[in-house]
């Protein structure tokens, strides 16, 4: 391989940057960033997770999830409440405003993903399996 040919790592980074930029642009009219979308859409799938559980689910740093959660709470998208058993734990949930915002956001992102994956045709499932295997590799 010549030095001019991109490495797999470079291609993964470029694809991640392309995806993040495209999602940020698509979500801007809804007043969301890609990271905020990840939090909101994850809250739709999870049942009142703690900030730590949400960080583990999303792959985001716990400190960043905490910062995002405070911002999303201030904007009325989520509620943050202390756990009844362990008051050190903060539980997160979508508010009605958050739910009404994340549902169209999911459709936008789904449409964008369909466009991105269209060139793969029937190889999309194989790509998903490969990516899942790579994400499971401890680094």
UniProtKB/TrEMBL annotation:
One of its GO terms (biological process) is response to stress. GO terms for molecular function: DNA binding; DNA-binding transcription factor activity. Signal peptide: none annotated. It comes from the Bacteria. Transmembrane segments: none annotated. InterPro entries: HTH_MarR-typ, MarR/SlyA-like, WH-like_DNA-bd_sf, WH_DNA-bd_sf. Residues 5-139 form the HTH marR-type domain. Keywords: DNA-binding, Transcription, Transcription regulation. This is DNA-binding transcriptional regulator, MarR family. It comes from Lentzea albidocapillata.
């Amino acid at each position: 391989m010549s030095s001019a040919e991109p490495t797999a790592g470079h291609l993964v980074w470029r694809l991640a940057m392309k995806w993040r930029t495209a999602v940020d642009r698509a979500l801007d009219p809804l007043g969301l960033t890609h990271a905020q979308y990840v939090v909101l859409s994850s809250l739709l799938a999870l049942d009142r997770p703690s900030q730590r559980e949400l960080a583990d689910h999303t792959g985001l740093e716990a400190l960043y999830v905490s910062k995002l959660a405070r911002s999303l709470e201030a904007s009325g998208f989520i509620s943050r409440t202390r756990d009844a058993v362990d008051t050190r734990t903060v539980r997160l949930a979508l508010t009605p405003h958050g739910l009404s915002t994340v549902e169209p956001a999911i459709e936008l992102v789904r449409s964008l993903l369909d466009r991105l994956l269209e060139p793969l045709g029937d190889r999309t499932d194989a790509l998903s399996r490969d990516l899942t295997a790579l994400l499971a590799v401890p680094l």
